[in-house]
Amino acid sequence: MNKILALLITLLVTLNVFSQDNYLKLPQAKTQNPTYIFNKNSIGNESLLNNLGNTKQEISDTIEEISVLKDKPNRENSDYFNLTEYGIVLVELKDDIICKTQEELIEFFKLPKQTDLYIDGYLLENKNYKIALTAIKEIEIVEPNTENGLKSSVLNIWTLVKNERYSDKVN
Fold first, then answer.
1. Nearest C-alpha neighbor of 103 from the set 113, 95, 93, 94
2. E-assigned strands of the chain?
3. Residues paired with residue 123 on neighbouring β-strands, in sequence order
């Protein structure tokens, strides 16, 4: 009996240690490119970064710090866990960028206040993140269906143009 109990405990501990949190995403979520977060609370993209100036020096002068995170953080300790499947680029700028809050975007589309917002197909779990206006490439209201398993409509904001969304492996 003790051997069975020990085996069961070992199995449960092993499963818990090696279990992975799943990403909450739509079926058409991006399959390449990292997520860009500016000034700790604004979702952007690479083109926003590249358009901070006309020359590499001008762009460099507007940036305080850039960090690239490739490892998957712990969901409980990270506000951006669900956006990390393809990495995160954290950019600290010397100036603020023009953004809209999630609440403002949901209100603009006359959706219920509890509507979930997705970025490039990934659920934005933290309601405090804003979206940089110049990073928005497309906005879609995704209706529930059997493929996506949604219970209600959601707002999906694409920060990538169509040819940047999917790797060749998927297409």
1. 113
2. 35-38, 42-44, 63-69, 88-93, 99-101, 117-119, 122-123, 130-132, 138-142, 154-158
3. 118
Reported as a single tens digit per residue, the pLDDT across 4-28 is 544 444 444 443 434 456 899 999 9
State if pTM tops 0.85. Answer: no
DSSP letter (8 states) at residue 149: -
Length of the chain: 171
DSSP structural state of residue 95: S
| Burial tier of 101 (Cβ tally within 10 Å: 0-12, 13-18, 19+) | middle
Amino acid at 66: I
The three-class DSSP label of residue 76 is helix
- Tokens, residue 87: 């990495």
| Half-sphere exposure (Cβ direction) of 126: Cα atoms closer than 13 Å | 18
Task: Read off the tokens for 135.
Answer: 């990073």
| Separation CA 139–CA 164 (nearest Å) | 15
pLDDT digits (tens, 9 = 90+) for 134-150: 999 999 999 999 999 99
